[in-house]
Amino acid sequence: MSAIPISYPITPQGVDETVLQPSKAFKQEVTKVLFAIFFFMIVYLLLMVAALLLAFLCGFGGVMLVTYMPKFFTLMIGIGLVGLGVMVIFFLLKFLFKKNKVDRSHLIEIKEHDQPALFSFIRTLTQETASDFPKKIYISSEVNASVFYDSSFWSMFLPIRKNLQIGLGLVNSVNLSEFKAILAHEFGHFSQRSMKLGSYVYNVNQIIYNLLYDNDNYGQTLERWANISGYFAFFANITIRIVIAIQWILQKVYAVVNKSYMALSRQMEFHADAVSAYVSGSDHLITSLRRLEVADNAYNRLFEYYDLWHKQNLKPDNLYPHHIDLMNQFAREQAIPVVNGLPQVNSNSFARFNKARLVIKDQWASHPSTEDREAHLNKLNIRTETVTDSAWALFRNAEALQKQVTEKIYSRVNFENPPQALDLHSFRKLYATEVEKYQLNHKYKGFFNYRNISVVNLKSFGESLSDAKSLEDILNDQALDLPYIIEGMKTDIHHLDLIQQGVMPVKNFEFNGNRYKKTDAAFLSSQLNAELADAENQLKMIDAKIISFFIDAAAKNGQSARLIERYSELFQTAESAEADLKKYSEIMEIINPIFYNNLPFTEIHIIMAKVKNNEIVIKERLKNLMNESTIPQYLSDQDKKTLEDYLSKNLDYFREPNFNNDALMLFNQAMHIYQSVVSERSFTIKKNLLEWQLSFVE
Predict the structure, then answer these.
(1) What is the reported pTM?
(2) How far, CA to CA in Å, does 482 sit from each of 1, 195, 440, 531, 619?
């Protein structure tokens, strides 16, 4: 990328400095957090006093026992008592020695002599935001920017310089004005004295988290102590019970502190937004917030395609041209304008897809919603001109840097043979093939993209149900909105049910712009279910009209009987796929806890027994599928080999105390193929039918 003149985005002039003052809500949350921290300190000190008293009594009792009854078993009991007291105190103090080190393995540090323009840009920005220049600057691959540091207990008392991480996916997605606004937001977290409380609360949270969940080393120490002697094992078990009781108390405290911290964190985000607006303008952060949602989605989709093409021994030479190309292709698909090479996303860009009417303020969220942040920034109303140059203008040898990061991502990826480079031309060609494979004809306007066609009584088509002259007459705006309205209703009903059950702990929520209490959830759910039934009937009628329209057209070509036959085949396949996907979801829901939770052996055995029971049905179903004549076309040779391997073995996934990782990997591969093949077959039959019936009206 050739060098271009760099224009530093102007800083707004004459802005009232009161925008930087903490808001009333911020001060209220600070007060709550201070009380929460004070509460934690009182509880912790009481626990420590109790632990010291226990240690004293255990030590005194052990010494007395050995003094008055000097035998081997009393000596072991005495040592065990002392060990019990020491281990409980150690549990409460172990956080003093814990350092929370941020993983840097995916990062690349850059120096000023390599990137002088970028460092100059950041130095000017830190001066404007009255924050310290970063200790180190790193680049990563993703759509993100953050300030981070290694923390420990002592971080609450010692000054620590922060590091800056810049994701090249973010650089790929913004102009210079937006880049300045984003970095100003990050520096804004540390530019005001009032914001430093956030770091303090963060470290308190880390201490409680360490006591509750970060216990691997402590558990290993207890285990080694218990293995020395049966006497010590007895006292180790008692220690565990005491520690569990302490953790139960701390869990209650953690809920109080963490809830307060999250509320403060949301206010800190608003404050950092105000700092950003003060030095760069409100509008640039707004436009970047919206676009970064698209950019992040495109980044994740990109790697889904890369995973797919990995089987073809392909590796991207530079992921960033692919990323921006995917962003812009997505924008064109959604009729979003692309200006200066970037999608111009706003709050209305995806309004059609989100028809949910229920609004719940997540009290556990660390960030406000994009809508709330945008409203706050618009209220500040600080405007500046936009520097439309790409943020890449700040980087020297940008293309080489992009390739270096791409290579780092793939440094741990194994290929069967030396991989072929996937350049932009090849990417576009492969992407177009994938899109064509899974895209329905644009004449249906996306009406069938994300759902099955409603099952209708095909015997009722003796008379025409549709007087439409064209497909356009049926697929009006009202009809096209209906599938999204239905999905919105289903989402709202699900959340209302969770509120009723207490799974979603909220006292108040908004629906249709009105405020409701938890007790209103049942009534609203009932009302929505009635609306949903009516909307689904409307959708079924529209589907019936479309089918009738094409059957009438097919009749003129002598093909109506064949079209009805193909619809019957489609309905049967869709019903079969729905049953298969339900089996897949059930078994994955059963097994997933072993991947994400540290479960006791008894619970793991129960889970694996359930997996085995469900697996019997799925294996039988897979055998039947592989014998069907239409299935092999959806399976690669590797997929067939994987399924044959899976079906030929009675896999033992867990043999206490270890998991069989190879067996679990084969299970996951087989389940993914199972889910993929039934979905692809159902979709392909639908796509082919919808494409074929268009020939009768063209």
Answers:
(1) 0.82
(2) 47, 46, 18, 12, 38
